[in-house]
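Take our chain:
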Amino acid sequence: MEATILDRATAAFLADGYAATTIEAIARASGVAKRTIYARWDGKPALFRAVLERLLTRWLATAGDWTVADTLETALLAAADQMLSVALTPEAVALHRLLVAESARFPELPAMIRQAGSTEGVARLAGLLDRAVVQGILPRQDTVFAAEQFMHLVLAGPQRRAVGLAPALTPAELRAWGVQAVALFLRGATR
């Protein structure tokens, strides 16, 4: 039953947004009483956080072990491919739209995303970059900052295109985007 409620809540939040989604609508779609939802979650913010945690857990589970790659470039290419494959799913694009549209009215939403685990991707990349610094591949630098910049370099353009601000990229163009983003990042990070 909990999985069904979370499925219906995910669909409602991503389709209708945070403000327009109600516990009543989720209960009706799930075929349960509102009190069933309130018995498990303490209101809409807690249910939304549960939805976020579930999405992020699933997305983070798809990440490979970037440490086993032969080179830093290979590891970053694997990371870029994985990030793009997750960030451009319909659910991730809908969540991106929701955050852009509703964060001003609900400033707690970005904090919920961070608490649900969105910073884990930055931490994984920073760990990879830390190892490259220790191995002498990269000069000493703020690897958390570098990881965030790498993520922006890889994701910003394709996400903008996915929400309709420019033509969407084909799979071949996405692969080329990742390759070019990694090359540009490495040219800047190795200085």
Q: What stands out?
A: Residues 78 and 140 are 23 Å apart (CA to CA). The chain has two domains: 1-61, 65-191. Residues 108-134 form the longest helix (27 residues).
